[in-house]
Amino acid sequence: MTSVGADHDRDAATPDRSAALAEAIAQVQLSGAMFLHGEYTEPWAYESLPTQDATAVLAPGATRIVIFHVVVSGSCWVEAGSHKVWAHEGDVIVMPYNDQHRMGGHEAAELVPITQLVAPPPWDSLPHIVHGLGGARSELVCGYLVCDDRLFDPRMRVFPPVFVVSPPEGPARSWVRASSDLVLQQTSQVGDQLAAPTDVPQLLLREVLKLHLAGAPATDTGWLGALHDPVVAPALAAIHGEPARKWTLTDLAREATVSSTVLDERFRSVLGIAPIRYLTGWRMHVAEDLLRSTTLPVTAVARRVGYESEEAFSRAFKRDHGTAPSVWRVAD
Hints:
alpha+beta; Jelly Rolls; Arc Repressor Mutant, subunit A; 2 domains; 5-stranded mixed β-sheet; 20% strand; globular
């Protein structure tokens, strides 16, 4: 893409962002399956296995796995570290780095280790958890995917530790529900392993990633390729890891161990956007995710993305999205 100066990083003839992103994500190699069917009744809560243990159980020998949950009915919260989100019927929860997490319903409940709810493998059928004290019911179908692509490298921090995608009403949302139903119907036992239609989880995660990343800056250029670029990638990792930091071009160049001029030129060449412009866009992308899926007040969201005042953040968000932050607020 042609650079047109410091204040105009994009050509007017911008290609279709969605199509470009879908094509890029299609190149990411994924493999995996659905592994758990859970029915939970209020009050309920559980804690997952630690990261390494979960990987060893689900995909022995894999470097890293991505965990996701489809909310078939009801609603729940999920917390990884200090990041807590809510999800509702039709949503897809993603743990991109397989961080140990906690999950529960609306009523307070004691955390139960997942090992008390499901026996260790090998399984002779899809594990089915029934947990809780008989109140309001939530149903989830869970899956995992193995992927060594740098998109899921924890050091790059492309994603928060847990995020929720709400497919829009219509075919996309119906397809998510139909996919989970299909897996439940077609999962069977073959030898010592469960056999499930692995193409369904792959297609599901690709669609979810496309929806989540559609608002990220520079997704209509070589964004995924930039994660592997020796100059751009270190600067991206710095921005993604600390979006609230008051980064300067000099600071980012130091992270990439190049001069400011080299970093700026390389950024524009690979992504079609200046580094500081990308920083602002990434902050807005992170803010959108926090507003949609957490209950953090707008002031707290502003601070997490580098704004000292709610007013300054609101102005920047409205410039980027055309609407005030409150429009993106989703109540639990």
